[in-house]
Design a protein that fits this description.
Strand content: 25-35%
Distance between the termini: 18 Å
Number of helices: 1
Radius of gyration: 15 Å
Shape: globular
Strand order of the largest sheet: 1-8-3-6
Structural class: mainly beta
Length: 149
């Protein structure tokens, strides 16, 4: 809660959403070293059930997040296309509850969001995103705080 409501972070979110902010949730994601687990291509807003799309998610790195440790990847500009169809599956290595996946993403335009501990990336809930397995020898820790107007 203290990280998600830090004044510096709230000031940035307020510039995007305005001063009326609701903290929706905070999630800690820990990926073990040399793990096969991953997060498939998805959009957060598809399954959050909000009645609007005035939302922003903040990813805070608590340990180094880089290509080797499976940092988040996203496709710039895809959030402007709105909701994409997602399929569900039963993949034990996918950390999403129903292994929901946007098929045929074509990740040639994907960018990696490498972060050092303490750095934050912000993205919209319609952002097409994923995280690859942690191939490093260290645990990867990150915190996600989702807010909405």
């Amino acid at each position: 809660y203290e990280l998600a409501t830090h004044p510096r972070l709230l000031d940035i979110v307020a510039m995007i959403l305005g001063p009326d902010i609701v903290l929706y949730n905070v999630t800690y994601i820990i990926t073990e070293p040399n793990s096969r687990t991953f997060v498939s291509w998805h959009q957060d807003l598809t399954y959050w059930g909000f009645d609007g799309s005035d939302q922003v998610s903040a990813w805070l790195a608590l340990s180094p997040a880089n290509s080797h440790s499976g940092c988040m990847q996203m496709i710039p500009g895809r959030h402007l296309e709105g909701m994409r169809d997602q399929e569900t599956a039963d993949d034990p290595d996918n950390v999403l509850l129903h292994s929901q996946t946007i098929p045929n993403v074509g990740d040639s335009h994907a960018v990696t969001c490498e972060l050092e501990p303490g750095e934050v990336s912000l993205h919209h809930g319609w952002t097409v995103q994923c995280s690859r397995p942690n191939l490093s020898a260290a645990r990867k820790h990150r915190c996600r705080a989702s807010t909405r107007a």
